[in-house]
Amino acid sequence: MKKVLTLLLLGFMALGLITSVCAAEPDPAGTKTGGAADVVGASANAPTADDLKNLAANEPLATKLADVVGHNRIAINMVWTLVCGFLVMFMQAGFALAETGFTRAKNAGHTMAMNFMVYAVGMLGYWICGFAFQMGGVGGVATLGGATGLDGEFVIHLFGKDFGLFGTKGFFLAGVAYDAVIFSLFLFQMVFMDTTATIPTGSMAERWTFKSFLVYGFFISMFTYPLYANWVWGGGWLSQLGKNFGLGHGTLDFAGSSVVHMTGGVSALVGAKILGPRLGKYRKDGKPNAIPGHHIPMALLGCFILAFGWFGFNAGSTMAGGDLRIGVVAVNTMLASAAGAFGAMFFMWKFYGKPDISMIANGFLAGLVAITAPCAFVNSVSAVIIGFIAGVLLCISVFFVERVLKIDDPVGAISVHGANGAWGLLSLGLFADGTYGDGLNGVAGTVKGLFYGDVSQFAAQVAGTVTNFVFVLVIMYIFFKVLDKIVPMRIAADIEVEGLDQAEVAVTAYPDFTVHKTQI
Hints:
Distance between the termini: 35 Å
Number of domains: 1
Strand content: under 5%
Largest sheet: 2 strands, antiparallel
Radius of gyration: 23 Å
CATH class: Mainly Alpha
CATH architecture: Orthogonal Bundle
Oligomer: single chain
Number of helices: 17
Strand order of the largest sheet: 1-2
Number of strands: 2
Helix content: 55-70%
């Protein structure tokens, strides 16, 4: 195992050095990034390229001022992107609190440890090769004025078209990737990836060995997430369905309903199924037993922290502080979360007699997940509709997963992120109102959904949804099956009864009271 890992590491290092040869000159200090050319297209009344040529010939002082303006524009966008990345990083605390609160006290230390270490492990895996596979062929980020060195995409040719599969530059952030813009892009993309990586820690909590969890953290950050993310965000084949086949603007996912949440949710579905339910979850007749979380206030606090970080998640995905659509994105995000909570409350109160606060909290998150893809493309009425449906869908999905599929998901991650990640991607293809998105993925015109006259955009969204489900399901099923043979995933029964804290992470979250073996 160690030899295999060593060979992989050496291989990635060699690939990073090879792909750096003959590449664009990086700008690690950022002093050469941003200039007069970056004011072109900044707004409706911005100078054109011809204006800049005339300016350079006739007004040398004005040219210098244009350089300053262009540099400052890029600086504003970079600061906005980084601050939003910091907000998304703080979502990790929200996940840790929510998942720990929704699970039992005897496993609180272990659940917290997984949420803590997935940040470290995921980041290192993404640094090694995940970022390169995802963004290594993106070809540049105009709003940040750089990243043009990331111009290596592995492409296959089918039907006379190019299908990008993965990037080939940016390994270890070395060579051409030693650049201020690329480093900023890495931070922003990394925290998105880590959101995906942490989702299965909730669905697989209370019976997952820490060793196998660590291997999983590297795999999803190095391969599963980056490959699908490349297809949608890195210039890969799903993003080019518009240019190649006339399907709208290709698969669009503004901030990650599918790229982030559905990927995590489908991974959680596969992992929880293979791992099996917690002891005592199902009776002999197959009916489920309720296993309440130990700290609902903690879980609800985690949900509020997640909602706060979500403003960075969604509004930050403009990667441009000068893009005033951020106000629409932020308000749509808020409204969908409220509608999601209300939808879950309505469903539970009507059909089960009481407003279940756990379902309401997850409905709140479901609304956020669903609006993540369409947040920039829809109006406020659509945002509320999308969020409300997400809250109802959350409840239906939870009962379906638990009672029909017989999968034990302690925190509802499969339903929150998987089901509603798919709904979010599809909802963009339904509700996009044609007021935003001109030129996305190289397609002229704004983005319109089925309800606004463009069936082709909905078709592109369906293609992205199906691709995500099939790809992630297959690759994670194979991975978990192989992993279980090498590093057993399921904890021993006696340890599960006693609690995982001491046995797995050498800590007891609540040492002031004892959890007896009779507690399951």
